[in-house]
User: What shape does this take?
Amino acid sequence: MTSDRGWTFWVLVGLLVVGHFVLHLAIGLGATAPDLLTPALLLAARRIRGAVAAGLGLVLGLLQDSLSLDAFGAEAVTLTLLGYLGSRSRDLFVGDGTVFLLVYLFLGKWLHDVIVYALSGVPAQAEPLTWLLVFAPLAAVYTALAGVTAVAAYRSVSGER
Assistant: This one.
């Protein structure tokens, strides 16, 4: 996903961030809407240095935390850590194929949910093990599919491979 027209990629990241808040707040879908902040951060982190990715994660986490009534700071810490780890993944994995992106976004979202759980606790309606091994992976699949769909749309519009 590298190109001379890098600004189009950052438009995608911005649209994912704006889309996240539109779906969750303006339209009011809440938990039924996919988490688009995590894919936006993970996709951006593959193109920027670790410190910048961590800073972007901190900003996105603070935006998300500003809407939370409980566990303030959990999203900021989580997205900061994910931004840094996502940036470091460039050194371990090369390529931007669809299958790679699907697995990358799935693991990133699942790790996000595990870290948020560790920092703030599990939702009251489920047991911890059930939540971590059933609901979190389902949310990760949903988020990964939304992220891969956004990247596919971006690639078709921008002409990137």
Q: What stands out?
A: Residues 128-158 form the longest helix (31 residues). The chain has a mean pLDDT of 90. The radius of gyration is 15 Å. Residues 53 and 83 are 5 Å apart (CA to CA).
